[in-house]
Structure formats: C-alpha cells, structure tokens
Amino acid sequence: MLRPTLSPIIFVQQLGRGLRNVKRKDYLTVIDFIGNYENNYMIPIALFGDSSYNKDTLRKLITSGSALIPGSSTVNFDEIAQQNIFDSINSTNLNRKKDLMQDYLLLKHRIGKIPMMMDFFDSNSRDAYSFVEYSRSYLNFVNSAEDKITYDLPPDSAKLLEHLCKDINDGKRIEESLILSLLLQHQSIYISDLYKTLKNMFELEGNEEDIQGVIQNLNLKFITERYRGKTLSVGDLYNYEIASTNGGEIKIGESLSESLKYPLFREYLADSTQYSIMAFTKKYDYSNYVAGFQRYKKYSRKDAFRILGWKQNPNPQNVGGYIVSPDSSNCPIFVTYQKTDDISDSLKYEDRFVTPTTFTYMSKNRRTLNSPDVLAIKNQKENGIRLPLFIKKSNDEGLDFYFLGDLTTIDGSFTQEKMQIEGGADVSVVKMDFLLDKPVEQGLYSYITETI
Questions:
Q1: For residue 449, what is the enclosing H or E element?
Q2: Which of 91, 242, 284, 386 has CA 20 to 30 A from 99's CA?
Q3: Domains recognised in the chain with CATH numbers
Q4: pLDDT for the residue 324
Q5: Which SS3 state, helix, strand or coil, does residue 156 take?
Q6: DSSP states of 339-387 as a string?
Q7: Residues paired with 426 in a beta bridge
C-alpha cells in the first residue's frame, strides 16, 4: 500500500488490485508503507463487501473469520491485527456529515432521484438509520442536503415524525413498526389479524400483555424529556395519541391521523416504517430469538427496557449494572467486560465468563445476601424473574450491548464477600454464578474475553 487514502472506495480498489485472481498466485501478502492501519475499519468493508457502515456489523464480520466470505476464499487475522481493526472501528466516527453526504449524493446520482431510506436498503448501501441518528429524521437530513428544494411540515407534525422515526422505527423490535405499517394502510386492524401476521412472517406468538406495552410505546409514553425541572413522558408532554385499542381492534389515534393529512408526512413515515421492518427482518433468526431480543444483536439500555415492557425509561443513575423492574418480572444485567484503569474502584466488579455458558457476577456494592435486589435474583426459580444478559467489551464500543441470552442462577453460588473501594474502605458485595441458556458463539466469545 503506497498511496494514502481516507476513502473506503479507493481503499477497496487498491486492495482489489492485489486480490485479482491470476494463475499460480496462491496467496496475497499486503505490506502497508503508508499507515493505512489507522483506517483499519475499511478492511471488513473491503474483504466482505459490506458498505452499511454499521459498527456492529463490521465487528461481526471480523469475528466470523472466513465464515461469511463466499466461495473457497479464506482470511486469517492474528490477535494483534484483529484488535487493531476493532480499535479502529471503535474510535472512528462513521456518521460524519461529510461521509453521509457522500453516500447520499452517490446514491442520488446512481438512481436519478432523491433517495429514500428504502433505496439505501435495496442498494445494499449505508445503514439508512444513521441519517436518522444524525438528523432525528430522514426528512430533516434531506432538507439539509438539498439546496434548491425545501420540504416543509408544520412544527407539530415535523416533531412527531422525528419521534416515530428515531424512537419507534429503529429496527430493534418488529411489533411497533408492523402496527404502524398496517395502520397507515387500513386505519384500524384486528388484533387477531396482527397475531396472524406475526405468526406467518416471524413464527411469533402475540399476547395481549405485550400488545398493550407496544401501544404504550407507540404513544411515546416510554421515552422522556425534561420540562420545567420535571421528567415527563413525551406522550404526555405533547399529548400524543398514535394508536388506541378498543375491544379486539387497534385504531389510529388522533395525533397520527391529523399529521397524515400531509402527504409529505405520510410518505416519509411509510418509508421509515418499511425500512425498520426490513432491517429487523434481514437480521431476524428465529432460532436465536429470545422473547423480544435477537441473540448477538446490540441494544442500548433504553432499547432493553422498552422491549422488556417497562412503562418508562428509568433514570440511568438508578440502573448501574442491573435493576429489578417495578413489577419484579425482569432484571436486565448490563456488563462492561473490560474495565478501564481510570474508573472508580467501586465500579471494578470482577464480572467474567468461566466458560461460554457460565458467568460469574458481582452485585452492586453495599449489598448483602438479604438485600431485596439480591434476594429477587437468588430466588429466581421461585419468583420466575427474567435475567437477560447484555455485554459490551469496553466503553470504546459506545452505549450499546450485545444481548447474549437469558441467565439462570446456580444454586449455592451466592456468597457475601468484601470489596475494597477508594480510600481503602471495605464494602460488602454478593458474588453469584449463572448459567447462560446457550453457549456464546466462539468468535464473539473470543472478542469479548481476550485481552491484547
């Protein structure tokens, strides 16, 4: 490699010249004289042909080794090289306005019109949700990208579109987007028909309790905003009604109905909704689907609480590494596997895998065997509390965690111990062991647990 570049496209072209198939060429050695290793995130883009610029997807491609490379080709990374690629993926901002604009204009030129989110999906191009993350709605991004055209919506409808695109249509759960799609077509739907659609498309069984939680999420009751010193649900703050249930029907709400009078709102909401459904479907694997979560897919804390049916997103300061739900039905556990040296001693818990199926975990500090949250977890087999495990390797990965599955407590493993915190004081913690419902796949297990 003799030519410096910040362009993944040029990087692929450079590497591609070496990858050309020629008789008697059995292997390729790439020597980097420039220092392109700082842009190592381009390597999975080049080798696997993925142009989504989704960090989770790029990490998965590297951990998969040769499994996802077509044909008889193989690629091998030593541990240091692999870690360098992960570090590059973690540290690089893949959603810079400059890069978003480049991909937007490239697709616009290719298809001859302003692209919609589904055009990016159909073209196997960038993950279009990155435009929503940057601008809160894809319509906002289009307005910022186009000089000669301005698409206007009334402020109330523009704000509602932002919330539905960013907080509902994120591709993390199918029910909300599916209901939105059906309401856009039919104004009202029978819940029994929704169950049939879920069964036919995804082999999922619907139930009334879950649907009520989905309707609450659609009405934006879960997410919150600060208003005059108080934390209020967005749905209550703006008096949103997106959908309502009446007997066995789900009907379109007044807020959504009013905004749908604007063709621009309808067009961009329908596009966002379809994109969310397709993004979910593309990664859906029934064999690794566990009560709302796709195993090995990444979720934020907010995603996890929303899918678990919490009525409102809890204050992060109250969560820590885990928190028991108000109805004691679940207790999600969030683990940052590799702690940095600069964090407080009171947060350096010795959470670790013993094997791909056995996990050792430490409670919050100042807990005993009789603390209510510890008892709720310890008595899992009696109270049926769900213990989903979410892990990220380090804080360099951002805010999202891999869902690895559900945990079951190991009888007799709960022991009360001491932990030293800042200042040298000892505080009580409870050590506990769990069994994971399925062994962690080897590539991801090595990525999380190995230290270079």
A1: helix 442-449
A2: 284
A3: 8-91 (no CATH), 97-288 (no CATH), 290-449 (2.30.280.10)
A4: 97
A5: helix
A6: --TTS-GGG----EEEETTEEEEEPPSS--TTSHHHHHHHTHHHH--B-
A7: 420
* Res. 47: pLDDT tops 90: no
pTM score, two decimals? 0.88
Paired with 419 in beta bridges are: 427
Please report where in the chains the tokens 């590539």 appear, as a residue. Answer: 443
> How far is the C-alpha of 303 from the C-alpha of 325, rounded, in Å?
15
**Assigned token pair, 360:** 């050792």
Q: What are the structure tokens assigned to 16, written together?
A: 């591609």
Please give the residue that has the higher pLDDT: either 80 or 388. Answer: 388
| Structure tokens, 251 | 């009907």
pLDDT tens for residues 296-305? 999 999 999 9
How many of the other CB atoms lie within 10 Å of CB of 383?
Answer: 12
pLDDT band at 347 (very low <50, low <70, confident <90, very high): low
Per-residue confidence at 243, pLDDT binned at 50, 70, 90?
very high
Residues 6+ away with beta carbon under 8 Å from 55: 89, 90, 94, 397, 398
Rounded Cα distance, 160 and 155, in Å: 9
| Residue 55 pLDDT | 85
Q: Kindly report the average pLDDT of the chain as a whole number.
A: 90
Residue 48 pLDDT greater than 90, yes or no: no
Helix ranges, 169-290 (H): 174-186, 191-202, 208-218, 234-237, 254-259, 263-283
The pLDDT value recorded for residue 340 is 66
- The CA distance from 56 to 100, in Å, is 18
**Using CA atoms, how far apart are residues 420 and 426, in angstroms rounded to an integer?**
4
Task: Give the whole-angstrom CA distance, residue 348 versus residue 261.
Answer: 54
What is the rounded end-to-end Cα distance, in angstroms, of the chain?
A: 26
- DSSP calls for 284-313: --GGGEETTEETT-EE-HHHHHHHTT-SSP
